[in-house]
Amino acid sequence: MSGIRIPFRWLTPLMGVLLLAGCASSAATSASLVSSTPVMTSQMDSALRPSVLEGQAIFDRADYMIGSAQHSILLEMYELGNTREISLLEQKADSGITVLAILDGSEKQTAKAIPELEAHHVKVQVAAAPLIQKGGIQHAKMLVVDDTQVLIGGMNWGSGSVKNADVDVYMLGAIAKEAQGVFESDWRMSGASLPAGIIIENTTNQDILYGKPLLSAILTELDHAQTIQVALFELSNNELINKLIERSKAGVKVKVLLDTRMEKKINSRAAEQLRSAGVQVKLYPENQVLHAKVIVTDHVVIVGSANGSYDAFSKNHELDIVTSDPAVLKQAQADLEAKFAKQ
Prior knowledge:
Layout: H1 27-35, H2 42-47, E1 51-53, H3 56-68, E2 72-77, H4 83-94, E3 98-103, H5 108-119, E4 123-126, E5 142-145, E6 149-153, E7 168-172, H6 174-189, E8 208-209, H7 211-223, E9 227-232, H8 238-249, E10 253-258, H9 264-276, E11 280-283, E12 293-297, E13 301-304, H10 310-314, E14 320-323, H11 326-342
Parallel strand pairs: 2-3, 3-4, 9-10, 10-11
Antiparallel strand pairs: 1-7, 2-5, 5-6, 6-7, 8-14, 9-12, 12-13, 13-14
Helix pairs in contact: 1-3, 1-4, 3-4, 7-8
């Protein structure tokens, strides 16, 4: 991917996207979406707007998206063991909808799911070089449906992932077309050609980034921020730590929330460095994994799969969205404020 990003993310996606289904907030609703033609309602139209989602709401939205698919379902996932999502993908593929998945072959739940998915007409590519580097993993979590909807963030689709404190963003319109273009590029990099019927999106990657371009975008956004809130599963990347310290010393209000249940040792070191520079740091309670990867400033939200680690920007395949969508920004700011207030 090119390191050059054209900064048009402040253009709010058009909300006149055709959505042809009702929101699946329960298992019964989602099952009916898979087996019948969805119908648009005014209630659904108001619910399906750019939004920040957590916990079960992420899976409810994924259910809706899969159920509403008319042409294609494109998935990039690290941990895939949720039997419900697997079943919905298989039902759609068996019904004739094109379902493509780029998965990580080293993750145990995912490796078990791959042959079952393929038995139900889901086309799977196991990520390899050059998509991932030596020692890296396919860590991205992105769902794109009909090039009109995208769900992207940190939530795995594992059997117990819903228990984690995690964040995804749901978007519509132009950004979904970019997401489809990103998936298509990743699919080709995995060594496969796209099947007939897939809409080819020749968009420039501007708001969905990974690798060094993503790290560069994060550092640039922090340089322009007047307030910074961060919630991360892991923080060990020296460039990112030093930038947060630099911005704090420049008078910017910086607040950082870190996981302790799984990454206590690593994050404790980062917390000590940051606190010595005046950064307000809180450690998440050990009764829940803080699996989110979120950076929120006064003007932008960065959400995705990339931890604040070295591997996230050098070895792994990650995907983060950089957006100034007003609704997403407002929700993300409020969400992180609430998380900090509870600690």
